[in-house]
Design goal:
single chain; 787 residues; 8-stranded mixed barrel; 6-stranded antiparallel sheet; 20 helices; 28 strands; binds ligand C2E; binds calcium ion
Amino acid sequence: MILYQPFKFSTLKSIAQEGRWLVVGTILLAVLCLAIIWLITISLVLGERRQAVEQSILASQNISSIVAADIDEVFGRALLYAQLSSSALKPNGDTPSIPAPLTFGDSAYLRLAVFGSNAELKYVSSRGEIEPEMRELVRVVLQDSSALHRQRRPFIGRPAANWTIPVAVPIVSGDEPIGVFAANIDLGYLLRLYKESTSSKDTALEVLDFHGQQLFEIRGGMVSDSDHDALSSYSGVIGRGKKLGRIEVASQANNITRIGSYHILDRFPIAVAITRDSVAVEGELTERHRSYLWRGILMSVVTILLSAGLTVLAQRQRRLYQELTESEVQKQALIEQLEQEKARAFQLASHDFLTGLPNRMMFYELATVELARARRSRNLYAVYFLDLDKFKAINDTLGHAVGDLLLKAVAERLRGALREYDLVARFGGDEFIILVSELNSEERASKIAEKLVDCLSAPYLEMNGHSVDTTPSIGIALCPRDGQDIDTLILNADAAMYSAKRSGRGKYRFYDDSLNTSSARSLELLTRFRRAIRDNEFCLHYQMRISLKDLRPVGMEALLRWQHPKHGLIFPGDFIGIAEEHNYITPLGHWIVTAVCTQLAQWRDAGNPLLPVAINISARQLSDDSLVDVILSNIREKNIPVELIEIEVTESCFLECPETAQRVLEKLQQAGIQISLDDYGTGFSGLSHLKQLPISAVKIDRSFIRDIRNDTSDAMIVSSTIALSHNLGLKVVAEGVETKEQVVHLKTAGCDEVQGFYFHRPAPASDVAVSLQNFGRLPVESMRAYA
Ligand code: C2E
Ligand code: CA
Ligand code: CA
């Protein structure tokens, strides 16, 4: 289950990041807006000012041209008057008849005067003192040698008071200058004509000399003399060869820029300038510009407020996201922790802590899923139930640490021997379960089982300083043949494993018996079973048990044989399993009890010395009380002392139906029958378990005895078993003793009794009778004669 979707966190993180950018972006945008607003406002203001200036200059150009033309014409008239006045210099001395300009309406010319070549006044149109400015001009004209060449051009003098300016024209006779015509021109009059166009105070119409020095000006409708303090000259502007031009001059005195244009007269070194205060020009725009300014300010304020609002909002959002992110981080950490714990809990719950393999629960889960696929597959699925032989004994005697190491090593070997996707699980204790998928044949399943037996049977070295030997017993159930659900398959594989255990250690068995190698023969035996009991095809062989104290026989074990008419003598390993599976074991068991008792009676009647005979009892025979009845009734019938009957049971007897088995065995024990625990070390219970069992002896399985001399772990198990059994007051019998060395070793270890080919091979009753006759007289070693 996905508790949390991590992408949300990263989204939040990016949103928080975006929040920061939103703030920065808003500020930048605001700055940009402000810049645009003010750029537009300023360029608008400047543009309009520029435009106003241009317009003003343009307007002034028109006026200055008109005024210049007028003045040029007025000054030009001086030539005409000069011509007319030249008669005053005629030698006849007539009073010249020079018309006074006023008489024909020329108000510009105030006084006309003619001077002789020595500057003597020859004629004057009005009375009064000749102005010094006129005299000076006349002198200048007379002294000017180049006057001849410019005779047609009037000279202009310094302006005099009353806004007049003297003008002089040389009078020439032939090449000889004979006098000078001079006149006072009332510029004031002239300029007053333009009063209208200069009515505003800031507008000035100025008359300038050729150097740009002001001669007169009319400002605010008032004509005034030059005021050099008020205005700087336009010397820098005028007289650079251009007749017309613009003026933009800043007055140094009051820092007012005057703008306008000038126009130099065509024929006279005089210029007319029309100028305005820039302040006045721009002043007209002030209102409008102020409104622009206000508009700009208003827009700026709005922009700032808006961006401030947005920034605050973005900040708040950012903080919110930040808090959210932090809480998300914490949540994420918590979830991760939870998930880790969950995973750990799941691992703990689903896996075996020791081997790391899946446990029973997990196996069921995974196998169920896997088997769902099996339904659609044409191949086989095999469940292997695997149990380690001797494990309990190893665990009990070598210690749990060794047992644990062994289980780990087994788990490792299993994993190594199988494919990656095969399921291996520990089922508990020394049981492992395996599911192998998609096998194309039963043969393949056998091959795998063989491989597992081989790989698990190799010695386990370095198990906490011990070298340990064990073998697996494997039961195999195939899907779909032996079951289609995991429960059935496990159950059947388990049953097959029991069957494998019975047939010896390190074996595998299929659940479906027909798949086992001896299946055909098993079937044949099975079909003949009932008849075999009836026809007395079974017989008993007896094997002596020897006391290690004095090396004398102390008992016998009855071992079943089937004298098959076709196959000859068949050993119990080949048919006991079948008998157990098909419920023949109880009648067979009864037959054995009867046969043993009958045999004992016969030996007694023949006068043979008698030894107790141990009968092997199967688990199934302990499921009801019939065994007790059969034994006791046979004993009574044949009048046999109860001490001569012993029974041997395996641990499996206590597993299938523990209460009944315990009760039956207790009854037998109470009746005086000795009970031994057979095949000890291969079963499921530990030594501690022995305490509760109604037994008097333990028979150590022959698989421990075989390598007792070489295998340190087996030797250790045997000696520990002997010591512990003695502690519990139990007798110890070693099975499968085949060599002298084993005898010596077992005697040294304190073992009580031995059984095996070394002393005596199982033999028919008739052969045993001979041994019995010699019983008590034979030297110990000579017992071997019967082996
Ligand atoms: P078991 O009870 O452990 O019997 C001892 C087995 O060890 C016998 O095999 C015996 O022949 C064999 N044996 C004895 N000494 C040696 C030795 O030195 N070396 C080796 N390699 N083997 C030795 P057997 O007779 O084939 O019996 C096999 C098993 O069949 C028995 O194991 C017992 O579990 C079962 N069985 C035999 N007779 C009966 C019976 O009457 N009733 C029942 N229920 N089971 C029986
Ligand atoms: Ca036995
Ligand atoms: Ca045995």
